[in-house]
Predict the structure.
Amino acid sequence: MSAVPDLQQQRQAFYGRADTQHLAPLWTRLKSLVPAEPTPAGVPHRWAYAEVRPYVLESAQHISAKEAERRVLILENPGLHGSSQITNSLYAGLQLIMPGEVAPAHRHTQSALRFVIEGHGAYTAVDGEKTLMEPGDFVITPSWTWHHHGNESTAPMVWLDGLDIPICALFASTFREDHHADEAPLTRPAGDALARYGSGLLPVGWQPGSLNSPVFNYPYARTREALFALARGAAPDAHLGHLLRYVNPADGGWAMPTIATMIRLLPQGFATLPYRSSDSTVFVGVEGRGELRVAGQRLALTPHDVVVVPGWMPYTLHADADLVLFSYSDRVAQEKLGFWREQRL
Ligand code: GTQ
């Protein structure tokens, strides 16, 4: 009995002395540093749009878009309180632009996606081109491009922001710059990028100048057409439903370099088999009704609800009515690094 406590005491004393040299034993930490499989970061959670919408709209009574620079309520994972993160690697927020407002131009190393929730015809201007936004549109703000947002319509616009803020923070490679003017100059007409690059054609001799898709607004009208055409022609995948990824037409890869974006349709009455992947995923309800079941919880998905599922937690999706879901995750980054895994259960 006495040898073991001595050993433990001697070890603890050694660890204490090693600590004075800023040294730590790996063997007490190895299993948690290098676990057999991922330890989910954060918890599954649902933000019901009906519950959060009043807060988003109230934010306009407290601050203007100009003063705030970006008037956003962050969707913070309850298991990562204080982190400004919705997952281990990604950020989410609901941004509000009121009629007549401009959110002033800036640029940063973080990449952003917008997924439009409500409102019609407000705009974002990215790298010299304005695009008018409609619900369900997926819009890209590539790293280090000037962007400002404005609303010349008569109603508020709300969209979901998805950014790779924690990824940039991991690499400590965050830079930002404010434009000297509220609005950065426009150098191309609205709709130019979609017409030029989003029609199954590319200008001969064109070379990509960015890691992002040159199509920076994927309008929902077109996405929806593709999704429902797919669904008419084939049976849904048992684990995924009818799942499409947004692609960069220049190379067939993902639309953004760090954030993978997808949209899916689950036909009425369809339920997926359990599935998990190593990328924590943010889902947004677009149309229809259903739920996501994870860890004994049933998280309803109605239009504009946001649901987060930490990586490697098995989940199923259930459609009560034809259910359209947008989703984003760090899958593209994990794939590039050789980390990404999925499991069909
Ligand atoms: O619209 O540029 O939600 O810079 C967070 C940081 C949105 C934006 C956010 C940002 C933006």
